[in-house]
Amino acid sequence: MRRNGLTRQRSLLTPGPLSLSLAVRSQMQLDLASRDCEFKEVTACMRRLMLSLLGNAEDYSVVPIQGGGSFAMEAALSSFVSRADRPLVCINGIYGERILRILRLWGVEALKLVKRATDPLDPEEIGEYLSRNPGVTHLCLVHCETTTGIVNPLDAIVEEARRRGVKTIIDAMSSFGALNIDLSQRGADVLVTSSNKCIEGPPGVAFVIASRELLENAVQERRSFVLDVRDQWLSLERSGEWRSTPPTHIVQATTKALEILHEEGIDARRRRYEKIRDDLVKELEGVVSPLLSAELQSPVCVAFGAPSGIVDQAGFDGLYRHLAAHNLYVYSKLHLPTRSFRIGCIGEIQSSWIVQLGCAFRTYFRSSQGRSAAPMSAQETCDARVKMPAQTGGEPQLSFSAETAVLHAGYRRDAVTKAVAVPIYQNTAYELDGDLNHIADVYNVKADGFTYTRIINPTTRALERRYAAVDMGRDSLAVASGQAATFLAIVNLSSGEVGDNVVASPYLYGNTWNLLHNTLKRLGISVRTADPRKPETFERAIDDRTICLFGEVISNPCLIPLPVKQLAEIGRKYGVPLVVDNTTTPLVCRPSDLGAAITTYSATKYICGHGTTLGGLIVDNGEFSYRGASRFPLFNRPDDAHGGIVWHNAVRDVDDLGKSEFLLKARMTWLRDTGAAIAPFASFQLIQGLETLPLRMKQHCANARIVADVLKEHPKVRRVFYPGLFEGADREVVEQTLNVAYGHGAMVMFEVEDEQAGRKFIQNVDLMYHVSNVGDARTLVTHPVSTTHTTVPREKREAAGIFGGSIRLCVGIEDVNDILRDLDKALSAI
């Protein structure tokens, strides 16, 4: 959905997946097509994972069904209940009523036991009913009745039925994956669930989990080919194939979702849902109240009583339209018997969405508004609530273009004064007031909060959020310099044992070369060199101790392009992340679009743009999962560097910092322990520079192209290197890697006759500044042999394309004719 040219993020607060996790989405991009053997393996894995999550029940089998959960329930009822049976349907919500309607539609003489939707089913009452009606053959009920969010006592009810020889068929759509169900000691005879509820997978696959005894003896009159669970089960057991299969990538993504659930654990997922539920209740306090008491409430969704004035569906529709206008969605029906509506807690719901929901509710029910209230702006809704500085920024409600994100992402205004500029929180520590348990949670990475500026600071956090949005990354971490960013990004991947290695391009900035080849070696991390013009050399250099591939998108200073997309694909093949330095081409290249896992920047350069401030940024592009990988043990086992924390568990307990386990680990260990912290005032200055980055980069690139074209024709210039002039294979890489809407970057390298000529050129510039920096708004010139590459051995330097007569230009945003006049003057002096 687009409005005013901006893409709106859909915040679906419903009992269905808000949005699929990145790992699941990436799996959906693949399709095994007709490769039957692989499809059978994925199907078998999917079935095994389902049983594993149910206690590895040996006496049960899993039958996948194409379609939704309701269709799977029809298949289960069709296969296991005949017209000769007398099932009892226990009802305390609309989903129990649905089971009854299905049975009666087929002419089955179904009995019913009805309770209020706010009362749980009573095992003793059900037992007494079964004793009075010995002809009952099946007991059907909903485990988690999401009409109101009530949980029925499954184990006790199943035990009552088993003692009387009654089979149980359970709707577990909104409980499997969120509540522990153990079939290892024999439980319900049949469970039905679907992939897009608490499994958090894609829609399109549902499951009938049934006892093998029941499957073997299920001989019913056929209602339809696709509803025959027993026949489908026999096909799976004998051939590994199942009928009416959905598209293969849906099965693949469902399997990935089950793997993630298995890693997270049902208890951890339940706690995640409970936290969202509790945050919803707290946020809406004083506006709407939960329908159920806490001990009855499901973690999956929470039902709220309709506020005064909403007495029918039409009244609720006014509220729903108001929420939808602000990109906030709740279940779109009012449950009239209880006058309640529900909000789901599953999926990737962020705290900012909950805050926005609270704001929208408050504005709708202000005294000046009624059921026909016109929607207010998103800005007006958030005025209804004052937040602490840690939360003032929130997340942007809209998905901005880079040109807009540099101005708006990550921070809106000060909560008290309404000042719109990001303030400078020039302080080191933060008062630890309030509940001591909460304070302990902040220090133990179980809750968001500010502790010490070496680790996190409100000004710096605004910069981090903003640049992550600009670069379309998951999150970013700001540090003291670009060199610190490269160092932390690589060592954060280390195993902690001697023997790790990095496969890197040789075309690197001089100090980066020294960091990799000397400093990291002293930490037990070796470097293997591979040729970016031959991506296969990276692949050949990878072994089981390789922690990353590394290179500069456009190398500084010799401008060799890195085949980011191909290297990312190689990295994915072997489970190795690609880390790229994009310092020279922010916005001109977006590594997240090309599959790079991590991007680093010296923000000192173009992001700042004014040569005033040191800073670095590490961006996690969300393209890589470290879970289960043996080469990354510190991500997958308790980390002694932070009290035995397991990072992929910790990232689920925090909201603001919960977008990247890679950066959470880097922040809480390497940044904390090395002290490579950026100053709050530096973060503020980088934010000022960032605001004009899109305008400056376009002008840099336009000027650089003109300068390169002129130098190419100058008689004193032997060679010119500029990405816009490349031909052949380098040209193909550049076109694949750079966004030509911006240009080809601001750096130009050219060669004069020899080192003496290079020195004379430098001594005769007037307008241009002879400095070793790059990325200033002013045009900068450097003679690498006498500055940045003096410590690099000659053979290494020349192998990287740096010779005595090499001159590096960083073309600024001045009038290009003034730049050209200064170049001609200096060249004429040679």
Briefly characterize the structure.
It is built from 30 helices and 28 strands.
Structure description:
- Helix 5 (123-132) packs parallel to helix 6.
- The strands form seven sheets. The chain has a seven-stranded mixed sheet with strand order 4-12-11-10-7-5-6, with helices on both faces. A seven-stranded mixed sheet has the order 17-23-22-21-20-18-19, sandwiched between helices. Strands 24-25-28-27-26 form a five-stranded mixed sheet.
- It is built from 30 helices and 28 strands.
- It has four domains: 22-265, Aspartate Aminotransferase, domain 2, CATH 3.40.640; 267-365, Aspartate Aminotransferase, domain 1, CATH 3.90.1150; 436-685, 3-Layer(aba) Sandwich (Aspartate Aminotransferase, domain 2), CATH 3.40.640.10; 693-829, Aspartate Aminotransferase, domain 1 (Alpha-Beta Complex).
- By secondary structure, it is an alpha/beta fold.
- Strand 5, helix 4 and strand 6 (111-114) form a beta-alpha-beta unit.
- The two termini are 60 Å apart.
Layout of helices and strands:
Elements: E1 2-3, E2 6-8, E3 11-12, H1 22-28, H2 36-53, E4 60-66, H3 69-80, E5 87-91, H4 94-105, E6 111-114, H5 123-132, E7 138-142, E8 144-145, E9 150-151, H6 154-163, E10 167-171, E11 190-194, E12 205-211, H7 212-217, H8 229-239, H9 248-264, H10 266-283, E13 301-305, H11 313-325, E14 328-329, E15 340-344, H12 351-364, H13 378-382, E16 398-399, H14 402-408, H15 436-443, H16 458-470, E17 475-479, H17 482-491, E18 500-504, H18 510-522, E19 525-529, H19 535-541, E20 546-552, H20 564-574, E21 578-581, H21 591-594, E22 598-602, E23 616-620, H22 633-636, H23 647-650, H24 661-674, H25 680-690, H26 693-712, E24 719-721, H27 728-737, E25 747-751, H28 755-762, E26 769-770, E27 780-782, H29 794-799, E28 806-810, H30 816-828
Parallel strand pairs: 3-14, 5-6, 5-7, 7-10, 10-11, 18-19, 18-20, 20-21, 21-22, 26-27
Antiparallel strand pairs: 1-2, 2-16, 4-12, 8-9, 11-12, 13-15, 17-23, 22-23, 24-25, 25-28, 27-28
Helix pairs in contact: 1-9, 2-9, 5-6, 10-12, 14-16, 16-25, 17-18, 19-20
Function: Involved in phosphonate degradation.
Pfam families: Aminotran_5, Cys_Met_Meta_PP
Keywords: Aminotransferase, Pyridoxal phosphate, Pyruvate, Transferase
